[in-house]
């Protein structure tokens, strides 16, 4: 999703009256001429500047009243016969009027945008709703809390429809948004957690884990969720067959704060020790792996591959015999080549063997 504030086209010219009539014309699509006239008449009367009234362009309260009467009539993204660009232009103009009449942090703006987000969420016009929501996100000032509400809607829609890849979400982008948005720390953490859950639901577990690191880091020491989230993060790192680098975990204060927990001692084995230490830990902690839904055989595979990588690091530029590798991995020499191939496919550094 593009993030280019102040780049949204409005697709409308003319006076306030002309623009309101354009919006009404769009809303009245599909009605008979008689129904259209009845629908538009109250707005035309409100727009007239009779004797004793200020011109509509100079009458802020009247413009606000007219907009407040028009917005409840926005009940979808058109009748389905219009093009995406028409729906996009309509909502761009609606957003422009909301923010020209009400500060973006005002209760009115928040209420109107909240209702519109619900309206857009209920439509099945996928392409149109992403375009409209992206435009709204880009229209709102970078520091506004409204940006959070809009992107939460986008994320929910993408999660529901399996369109997460459409968002092209980048961690650096999310971190920048969170540094800009004027929202409480708790809301920032909740937003990151929603991304964690979205990728988990989409079975993109490596991406989910990557955002879990940020989520745990965002939780203050006083948070009731911190310890359980930290333990789940450690369990996920051990559980995922693609995670071999545990250094990022030890850089988190939250992880260091659970140093007395059994999972922390297991994590240390994967950072500094080998298969004998893992098997000793497993024997002394019966039922622990099952409790955290960690498969012992997967951990054995992972620690063997880490041992293989460690051997490669210690013997850079040297050759290693099958027998030395087999001894370190606690496997038969005939299985060494299989482990080397597995290590290569997992991205681990592999020694030269003979």
Automatic annotation (TrEMBL):
Pfam family, one: PCI
Source superkingdom: Eukaryota
Annotated PCI domain residues: 204-354
A biological process from GO: cytoplasmic translational initiation
Cross-referenced InterPro entries: COPS7/eIF3m, PCI_dom
GO cellular component, one term: eukaryotic translation initiation factor 3 complex
PANTHER family, A to Z: COP9 SIGNALOSOME COMPLEX SUBUNIT 7/DENDRITIC CELL PROTEIN GA17 (PTHR15350), EUKARYOTIC TRANSLATION INITIATION FACTOR 3 SUBUNIT M (PTHR15350:SF2)
Family: Belongs to the CSN7/EIF3M family. CSN7 subfamily.
Protein known as: PCI domain-containing protein
Source species of the chain: Agrocybe chaxingu
């Amino acid at each position: 999703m593009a993030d280019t504030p102040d780049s949204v086209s409005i697709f409308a010219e003319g006076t306030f009256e002309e623009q309101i009539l354009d919006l009404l014309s769009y809303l009245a699509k599909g009605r008979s001429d008689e129904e259209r006239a009845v629908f538009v008449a109250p707005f035309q009367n409100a727009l007239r500047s009779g004797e004793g009234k200020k011109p509509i362009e100079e009458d802020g309260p009247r413009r606000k009243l007219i907009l407040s009467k028009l917005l409840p009539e926005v009940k979808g993204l058109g009748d389905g016969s219009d093009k995406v660009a028409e729906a996009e232009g309509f909502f761009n103009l609606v957003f422009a009027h909301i923010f020209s009449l009400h500060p973006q942090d005002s209760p009115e703006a928040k209420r109107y945008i909240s209702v519109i987000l619900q309206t857009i969420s209920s439509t099945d016009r996928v392409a149109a709703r992403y375009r409209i929501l992206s435009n709204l996100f880009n229209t709102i000032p970078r520091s506004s809390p409204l940006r959070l509400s809009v992107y939460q809607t986008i994320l929910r829609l993408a999660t529901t429809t399996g369109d997460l890849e459409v968002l092209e979400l980048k961690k650096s982008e999310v971190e920048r948004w969170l540094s800009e948005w004027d929202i409480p720390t708790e809301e920032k953490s909740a937003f990151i957690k929603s991304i964690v859950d979205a990728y988990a639901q989409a079975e993109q577990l490596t991406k989910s884990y990557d955002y879990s690191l940020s989520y745990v880091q965002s939780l203050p020491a006083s948070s009731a969720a911190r310890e359980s989230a930290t333990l789940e993060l450690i369990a996920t790192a051990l559980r995922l067959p693609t995670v071999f680098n545990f250094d990022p975990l030890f850089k988190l204060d939250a992880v260091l704060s659970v140093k007395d927990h059994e999972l922390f001692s297991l994590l240390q084995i994967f950072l500094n020790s080998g298969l004998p230490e893992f098997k000793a830990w497993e024997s002394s902690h019966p039922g622990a792996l099952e409790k955290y839904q960690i498969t012992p055989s997967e951990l054995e595979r992972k620690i063997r591959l880490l041992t293989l990588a460690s051997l490669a690091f210690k013997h850079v530029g040297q050759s290693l015999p099958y027998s030395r590798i087999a001894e370190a991995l606690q496997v038969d020499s005939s299985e060494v080549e299989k482990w080397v191939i597995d290590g290569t496919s997992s991205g681990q550094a592999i020694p030269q063997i003979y």
